[in-house]
C-alpha cells in the first residue's frame, strides 16, 4: 500500500526529501490520523489530516494494533491541549487562549522505521533531512538507538538528543513561530541513524483546527511593532508545507490535488455551517 490523499497510510522509503541535496530521506512510515467515521463532516469536507484511516492488512493482530494506535493518539491529543495551556500562560495569555485552535485538531501519528546507514560525515544521506516541523507542536517517542540531532543556535553545531527511557521529546512547529512573531522558535532537527541497527520512532503532530486563522498573538509584539507574517489558516499553511517537501513525488501530486479539493471543500463546509 502506498500513501495517498489525504496523507494517510504507508509511505515508502525516500518519498520525502527535506534537504533536497540527497536521494531522499532514508525512512519509511505509516501515517494515521484520529479515527473518524467516513460520514464525519470534516472527512467529507476533505479537511487536512481528517480522513479515514487505512490500517496495514499484513499485521498479526489488526484489532489490537488499531486499539493501541488509537489510544495513543487520544492520549497525545490530550497531552497537546495541556501543553498549549501551559504555553498560553508563558505568553501572558488566559489559560484557555489556545482552546479554539485545539478543538477538532488535525493530528497525525507517524510510525517511522529508519534503516541503518553509512557513517561517513561527508555523505548527504539522511534518515530525515534537516527541517523544522510545520504545525503547532510535535510529541516524539523514540527508541534507544539515538540519531536525532537538534541545531544548537548558540554553539552553531548539531547536538545529539540522547534517548532517555520513558521520556518524550516536544518540539514547537513553524506555526508557533508565525503566531508569536518569532518569540518562540521551531528548532531545526534531523536524524542520522548511525547505530548499525534499525531505528523506530513515533512522532505525533498536533496542527490545530484546519479552519483556524493563525495571526500574530497581540501579546507577542509591541504596539509599534509590525507582524512579521500575514494571517493564514492552518489548512493553507499545512498543505503548502507538505507540498514543499514531497517535490516530484506522487505525494506532491496527491497534495496538489488535495489543495484543489479543499478549496472546494472549504466552500462546501462554510455552506454547511
Ligand atoms: O524520528 C525522529 O526522531 C524525528 C522525526 C521527525 O523529525 C519528523 O518526522 O518530523
Ligand atoms: Fe521533525
Gist?
Residues 105-208 form the Fe2OG dioxygenase domain. With 273 residues, this protein is an alpha+beta fold.
Record the SSE blueprint.
Layout: E1 9-11, E2 28-33, H1 41-44, H2 62-90, H3 99-102, E3 106-114, E4 128-131, E5 137-142, E6 148-152, E7 157-160, E8 169-172, H4 174-179, E9 189-191, E10 199-208, E11 213-214, E12 232-233, H5 234-245, H6 250-272
Antiparallel strand pairs: 1-2, 2-3, 3-10, 4-9, 5-8, 5-10, 6-7, 6-9, 11-12
Bound molecules: 2-oxoglutaric acid (AKG) and fe (ii) ion.
2-oxoglutaric acid binds at residues 110, 112, 128, 133, 140, 142, 148, 189, 191, 201, 203.
Essential attributes:
single chain, 273 residues, alpha+beta, Jelly Rolls, six-stranded antiparallel beta sheet, four-stranded antiparallel beta sheet, 6 helices, 29% helix, disordered N terminus, binds 2-oxoglutaric acid, binds fe (ii) ion
Amino acid at each position: 500500500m502506498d500513501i495517498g490523499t489525504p496523507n494517510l497510510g504507508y509511505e515508502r522509503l525516500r518519498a520525502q526529501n527535506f534537504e533536497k541535496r540527497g536521494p531522499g530521506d532514508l525512512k519509511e512510515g505509516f501515517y494515521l490520523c484520529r479515527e473518524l467515521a467516513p460520514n464525519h463532516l470534516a472527512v467529507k469536507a476533505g479537511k487536512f489530516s481528517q480522513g479515514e484511516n487505512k490500517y496495514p492488512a499484513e499485521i498479526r493482530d489488526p484489532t489490537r494494533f488499531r486499539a493501541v494506535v488509537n489510544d495513543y493518539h487520544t492520549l497525545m491529543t490530550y497531552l497537546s491541549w495541556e501543553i498549549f495551556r501551559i504555553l498560553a500562560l508563558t505568553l501572558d495569555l488566559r489559560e484557555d487562549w489556545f482552546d479554539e485552535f485545539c478543538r477538532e485538531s488535525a493530528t497525525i501519528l507517524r510510525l517511522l522505521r529508519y534503516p541503518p546507514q553509512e557513517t561517513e560525515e561527508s555523505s548527504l544521506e539522511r534518515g530525515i533531512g534537516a527541517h523544522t516541523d510545520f504545525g503547532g507542536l510535535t510529541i516524539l517517542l523514540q527508541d534507544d538507538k539515538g540519531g536525532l540531532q537538534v541545531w544548537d543556535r548558540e554553539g552553531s553545531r548539531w547536538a545529539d538528543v540522547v534517548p532517555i527511557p520513558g521520556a518524550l521529546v516536544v518540539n514547537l512547529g513553524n506555526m508557533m513561530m508565525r503566531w508569536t512573531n518569532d518569540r518562540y522558535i521551531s528548532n531545526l532537527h534531523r536524524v542520522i541513524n548511525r547505530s548499525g541497527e534499525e531505528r523506530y520512532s513515533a512522532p505525533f503532530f498536533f496542527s490545530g483546527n484546519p479552519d483556524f486563522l493563525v495571526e500574530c498573538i497581540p501579546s507577542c509584539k509591541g504596539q509599534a511593532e509590525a507582524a512579521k507574517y500575514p494571517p493564514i489558516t492552518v489548512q493553507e499553511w499545512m498543505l503548502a508545507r507538505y507540498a514543499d517537501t514531497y517535490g516530484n513525488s506522487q505525494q506532491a501530486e496527491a497534495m496538489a490535488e488535495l489543495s484543489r479539493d479543499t478549496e472546494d471543500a472549504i466552500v462546501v463546509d462554510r455552506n454547511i455551517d
